[in-house]
Structures are given as structure tokens and as C-alpha cells.
Amino acid sequence: MSYAGDLTPQQAWDLLTSDEGALLVDVRTLGEWQQIGVPDADALGGRAAFVEWLSAAGPNPAFVEQLLGAGVEPGDGRSIVFLCRSGVRSIAAAQAATAAGLGPAYNVLEGFEGGIGPDGQRGHDGWRAAGLPWKSL
């Protein structure tokens, strides 16, 4: 079984704000959170978790365990919305969550700051560019 599907940043926000049980999980690295910013968990009533999918050392072997620590349980039906930089790592994270019986698990297309634009920079697409709540750490 694959993840539940892809959402635009606005669709992800709409799901997160309309489903009081839904959880946003940012799977970027600590360095990305610190350098680029994060979705504003306060705007979601605290329903956001920060769990690295990959670190400098490689894949996070405790990823599913850390998701469970964020309050999701297998079979509880709680929607989980995964976010990374550009929407690639979050697909793999959503698939891993689904395989562990969590979710439905969704991927945010374009991620937090989107892919590289014609000017060689990120930030033209994604959560932040859509004007959704975020903050610096």
C-alpha cells in the first residue's frame, strides 16, 4: 500500500485546520529547520512534530518510533501530513508511516520551499511561498 496521496501546500493547510486530529510532520534536518525556518506549530494548535527522515549520518533508524512518540498510533486513523524541503523525502516518509500502519499519510507537494527555480534558488514554491504560517527558529 502506498501513501494516501499528494496535497498542495494550501490543501495541506486546509486539511490540518479542518481536521482537529491531523498532525503535520516536518521531516527535514535540524540544520534545515534552523537555517530556513519551520511551519508555525502554534498556528496549528501545537499539532506539528519535527522528526528527521535523514540526518548527516544517513537514514533515521528510529523514524517510526519517533512518530509514535509524537502521538500517532497504528490503526488510529489520524491523518499525518508530511513535509520536507521540496516534497521528495516526505513521500518516502509517508510511505514508511503507511507501512507501519499509521495514517492516512499525505505528502506536501513542493515541500517547505519548493524546487530550484530558473534563477538557481529555492523559495518560489512551497509552504512558505504560499504564505502559510511559518517562523524562524
Automatic annotation (TrEMBL):
Residues 18-136 form the Rhodanese domain. Pfam families: Rhodanese. InterPro entries: Rhodanese-like_dom (IPR001763), Rhodanese-like_dom_sf (IPR036873), STR4-like (IPR044240). It comes from the Bacteria. PANTHER family: RHODANESE-LIKE DOMAIN-CONTAINING PROTEIN 4, CHLOROPLASTIC (PTHR47377:SF1). This is Rhodanese domain-containing protein. The lineage of its organism: Bacteria, Bacillati, Actinomycetota, Actinomycetes, Micrococcales.
